[in-house]
Amino acid sequence: MTSTPNGPVRTNSQTGSMANAGEVLVRTKILLLGLRRSGKTSIQQVLFNNLPPKECFYLDATMRIVKHTYDTVIPLEIWDCPGNTTVESLGAPLSQFATLIFVIDIRDLYNQPISKLVEFIMAAYHQNPNLNLEVFVHKAERLHEDDKIENFRQINERVTDRLLDESPEYEQLPLNFHLTSIHDHSLHDAFSQVLHKLIDSLPYLEDLLNVFCTNSQSPKAFLFDARSRLYVATDASPVDSATHNLCCDNLAMLNSFGALYKSVSASPARHRFPSTATPPPSAASTTPVTPLSMSSNLDSEKQSESTDSRTPSPLSSPPAPPVSKPLSAPDTNLGQARKTPKEKFYSSAATSLHPATPGTTLTYHMITPELVLLALLPTPVFEGKRGLIDYNVVFFREGVQEICSVEKEARMAV
Ligand SMILES: Nc1nc2c(ncn2[C@@H]2O[C@H](COP(=O)(O)OP(=O)(O)OP(=O)(O)O)[C@@H](O)[C@H]2O)c(=O)[nH]1
Asked: What spans are recorded as compositionally biased (Basic and acidic residues) (predicted)?
């Protein structure tokens, strides 16, 4: 798929499903393949249906192709295929797909799965050279570290050798291997990387995160899809797995217990301000984002009305949140989108990670109903410059919302 200043252009790898009456939402398709019991359905269910990993044990065998839809920054359609699916029995040309994920059980005998994978890679080479080819070497947690690395290396080597045996032209195909397991964070990390290749607006989201980090003194920030806990973008600093895992766990905790931490200000009576009045000066200060507190909740009716004339155009240049004014005079009324009575309220939370001075705080801000911003902040910055942080979140939110609406618009066909 290519991008234009007006957003993504549809290609073969996307097909439509009915959205509103007369409208078709164009979805990006992902093909999930692998032998029987390799773990395909478990991957789909754990990521997109919140199934606890332990319950995957009871999943039925997949007898026919099941198409799952999922909406995040881009709308996805994931095809969970039975173990005996072949290029011929797939029932759709590979040109329809953006990504092929092939799942191999790390403890299986490799001959059969590798033959099948090679068969699909060769077909993809002819039908859709742009197809992203991803191999999940799955159930990795079952092996000790050394065996895990050795088996991973062997699979990688054998696939490459088999492809070279078929024809040297297959050497140039970019194959990506990931070690995954539903029982740790490796699956989320791997699938996030798969997702990044499908998001055309990724550079704009990354720019917004870079600007947020610079202006908020944040060493690391992620834009997560809240439900699946896949990160759709992060800033330019490298991702270290400890920080990623911490953010994933924090998000899981907030997803599970968030509703328990509603503050007083979440009561419906305090959701709206009189139509002509500005928010009362105390409005923001009544919703302190204290460790493990949730401030405000979601007013879904107002969701679509949250952008205003100040909305920057993120597709041309990312917004640059002003720094000097909030730094010198934090204005807490700017935070949490309390600008006009039309706007909705957004959840936010913060967790102190290690209380020793200077300490680090992990903040959570809802950006759209699907997306949340998780950012690490030095605790003195979080405590001393709340106005600045809130102000920067507002600009970040507006940028992301505009990108999402452009994506959505581009994918709607009448
Ligand atoms: N240890 C371990 N077991 C897993 C993992 N992922 C899946 N499993 C188990 O593997 C078994 C098969 O999982 P499924 O998701 O049904 O596999 P599938 O590929 O969809 O199988 P078919 O529907 O028959 O094609 C289940 O018992 C899962 O609990 C993993 O990461 N680690």
From this structure: 299-308
Q: Is any atom of ligand 1 closer than 6 Å to the C-beta of 142?
A: yes
CB 57 less than 6 A from any atom of ligand 1: yes
The atom of ligand 1 lying closest to the CA of 44 is: 15
Decide whether any atom of ligand 1 lies within 6 Å of the 228 Cβ: no
- The Cα 140–Cα 159 span in angstroms is 18
- For residue range 178-227, what is the model confidence (pLDDT) as tens digits? 999 999 999 999 999 999 999 999 999 999 999 999 999 999 999 999 99
Residue type, 380: P
Using CA atoms, how far apart are residues 343 and 350, in angstroms rounded to an integer? 22
Rounded Cα distance, 298 and 345, in Å: 6
Neighbouring CB atoms inside 10 A of 286's CB total 13
Neighbouring residues of 324: CB distance < 8 A, sequence distance ≥ 6 = none
- pLDDT of 137 > 70? The answer is yes
Check: complex ipTM more than 0.90: yes
Is the peptide bond preceding residue 358 cis, with omega within 30 degrees of 0?
yes
Q: In this model, does residue 13 exceed pLDDT 60? A: no
Residue found under tokens 């984002």: 289
- What is the rounded distance in angstroms from the CA atom of residue 235 to the CA atom of residue 210? 5
Give the distance (Å) from ligand 1 centre to CA of residue 192.
Answer: 20
**H helix intervals, 77-228:** 111-127, 145-166, 186-196, 202-216
Report residue 157 CA to chain centroid gap: 30
Task: Output the residue whose Cα is nearest ligand 1's atom 14.
Answer: 39
> In this predicted model, what pLDDT tens digit does every residue of 101-122 receive, in sequence order?
999 999 888 889 999 999 999 9
How do beta strands 230-234 and 220-225 pair? antiparallel
> Could you tell me where the beta strands, DSSP code E, fall in 226-347?
230-234
Amino acid at 183: H
Coil/strand/helix, residue 129: coil
Phi-psi region of 299 (alpha: psi -120 to 50; beta: other; left: phi over 0): beta
